[in-house]
Amino acid sequence: MKVLLLGATGNLGLRLVAALLTHGHSVVAFVRSPKKLESLIPASVYQQITVVQGDATDSAAIKKAILDAGCDAVVNTAGLAALPPWGKSDLPKIFRAVVDAAREAGAERKKPLRAWLLAGLGALYFPGSETLLSNYIPIYLEHRQNLQLLQSLPQNTIDWSLLCPAVMTPEGSEIKVPTASSHAKLIGNAWSPPSWRDSWVKHIPLIGKVILCVMNAQRYKTTLEQNAEFIADDLESDESRWIGVTVGVIDPSK
Ligand SMILES: NC(=O)c1ccc[n+]([C@@H]2O[C@H](COP(=O)([O-])OP(=O)(O)OC[C@H]3O[C@@H](n4cnc5c(N)ncnc54)[C@H](OP(=O)(O)O)[C@@H]3O)[C@@H](O)[C@H]2O)c1
């Protein structure tokens, strides 16, 4: 696919440049600073991508980039969610700009765009319930309003998927193509975390489910390379089981 990638200079974005190219996709990187991107990846990789300069809060510029390059998909890793419950960042503004651009570009080309967007573990449901995990551990709350925005979209406007990883760490700092994660392929699950470990502790009044979330959270640490591979691999097919859902991921060894 031809993919517009926002946030290519970030931790996950850099790994996505390598993973997308490795999976045979064409990459159009939408960045604030092409110079910064050029300094972060080898020249041999930079030469394989198209770079568009722009701000990810500028919906019209993102839409233009999609249509000018003839992109079929958008991957957004731009914007970092604020940590404390009261924190604010540009992420909701960026998220809305990307969604609006993808929706309008899809309408213009008369085919919905495929889109992968990022949230965190808290945007998944506590297994067996319709309560978000971030109700129990109220951090990174900006992801919730982004999820609400996606859920408010009429059908067939964007073929979206919302990846909800816990902490992602780097396997290494070198960006190369072809790339491969040295870890196993992630296992995904729609709407709630895969392989959740249940326990009687959840029945402790008031704090039981909070304790269970904390007990489980450590197991959902993954690597940036694993998540980049997960998205790049999924975009190889027109049919995806992840369209219209939040996606939790876990390393099978956990
Ligand atoms: N890292 C984790 O462990 C983790 C875990 C769960 C979820 N997430 C989510 O995953 C996403 C990616 O995380 P990350 O660690 O890769 O973040 P990151 O390293 O902080 O990268 C953020 C990227 O956003 C870009 N950006 C910010 N504002 C922009 C704007 N106005 N216009 C264009 N680009 C802009 C930055 O570009 P510049 O280089 O120009 O600043 C950078 O490339 C985030 O939404 C984060 O909340 C991360």
TrEMBL record:
Pfam family, one: NAD_binding_10
Keyword Signal: yes
Protein name: NAD(P)-binding domain-containing protein
Record's signal peptide: 1-19
Domain NAD(P)-binding: 7-182
InterPro entries, sorted: NAD(P)-bd_dom, NAD(P)-bd_dom_sf, Polyketide_Oxido-like
Alphabetized GO MF terms: oxidoreductase activity, acting on the CH-NH group of donors, NAD or NADP as acceptor
Keyword Metal-binding attributed: no
Superkingdom classification of source: Eukaryota
Organism: Cladophialophora psammophila CBS 110553
Lineage: Eukaryota, Fungi, Dikarya, Ascomycota, Pezizomycotina
UniProt KW keywords: Signal
